[in-house]
Write the structure tokens for this entry.
Amino acid sequence: MEKGNRLLIHIVLICLSIPAILPLIWMISTSFKAETQIYTNTGMQSFQISSLWPSPMHPQNYSEALQTVPFGIYLRNTLILCLLTVLGAVGSSAVVAYGFARIDFKGKEMWFALMVATMALPGQVTMIPVFTIFRNLGWYGTPLPLIVPAFTGSAFFIFLLTQFFRTLPAEMAEAARVDGSSEWRIFTQLVLPLSKPALATCALFQFLGTWNDFFGPLLYLNDPNSYTLAYGLQQFLSLHGGKWAQLMAASTIFTIPIIVLFFFAQKTFIQGIATTGGKS
Amino acid sequence: MKPGRTNNVTGYLFIAPWLIGFFVFTFIPFLQSIYLSFTRYNIITPPRWVGFANYQMLLTQDELFWKSALVTVKFAVIHVPLAVVVGVCLALLLNREVKGIAAYRTIFFLPSIVPTVATSVVFLWILNPTTGMINNLLRNFGIQGPAWLNDPFWAFWALVIMSLWGVGGSMVIYLAGLKDIPVHLYEAAIIDGATPIKRLRHVTLPMLSPVIFFNLVMGVIGAFQYFTQAYVMTPNGGPQDSTLFYSLYLFNRAWKYYDMGYASAMAWILFLIVVTLTAIVFRSQKKWVHYG
């Protein structure tokens, strides 16, 4: 590529990067600003680069936000939900996927096709009957409706893991079978250790899914002590709408862990998304 | 590879967790919701059979139903193709060997992993008519920005702009698709004297079409289930119901008015729309999707 061409690409990329990154910078910058800087004079101001820098620094927004709303408790609740749903969804999906990938049984194709079809079913269709099930069980207002379904596996993960298990070499499993190993033993001792990248992808997706989930907590949680971050942030917005500095502090607390996670698990993120898109 | 021996008991034991979940949380509720859509039901008292009354009411008397369907279709028609074009263009730009390309990719990808509720809250602030960043920026050019979410015309476009911000997820998928295109196709095209534009039209886009197709299907289905952003930013459906998305109206019917039978009928109409649209998109793929 010629030099001029290259420079042009850089200019285009930098121009496009600005709208991509500015909202995040604006979020973090506002979270450190004092109210006096946010609402200067008439409020009708134009944009200055220097206004991105909080002056004076007002980190108290964070402690004030934490005092208004118990985000510490929400964080704990969210992490517990993430842990349990990751264990449940990845564990059961792996078991089910092994059944689909490696064991021959009657009706397998039909069940697999049905499972894939459920992925296209809008959640709104089953929302009300499922809600009545949990209500009749007395689980409304507890986090159980957000946890228990994960343990029946996720159609999406089962699909991904089935594809993955099918690519693993069959010889070792055959040898183990000849030696009299049970399917369960082959699954746990041979297949699972070879599948760490695929399992990590599923774990990451489930973690993000639970961390982001707004609809589930909106339907089932009614006790502020069991709120998650996503739901707690929305509640904070609807109760304390105008407190932008505190709202941005809360949004930052909610977002930064995901960005940190991204930098630690960049490969899993990118490869996960890329493979899910390709295998339609 | 060859699967293991035929073993019905072991097989069903392995898929049992999903099978139980399928019946309890999907199949039985699916059937129940058909029944509920023909009833009046408020969760507390048992459902009462009303025949086709809900459907009749929806289709002939409920203006909000049509309004919400229209908002959703408008969003799908505008947002989905726009997201595909922007996503593909970004991927083409980022599929180059220039310095610091990894940093650019990260920058474009990051917005897509910001949690939806956080994105919505941040954009509420950015779109604030008096102190928000966007209108501040517009003032630099002497433009008095609109009232965004308080304006019946601009509220809808505010959500379109916001959803474009998260286009990085599909960009990664396109980027992976671009990497999968065999180099020899380009080499052959260059030998044949194809210009870069021709290479794009006759090599890149056809080879990328399955991935574009996948994103198109997901985008259309996603538009009909677009809820969280609309609910967080405009819980009542925005000025003059301009952001009353189908799923938002359905939710309000169910959980604000406890009109569960009516909401079930809406859910069933949604289901039929999604199935029909998916079928149409699948049918049309033969015309333009190239599976290499």
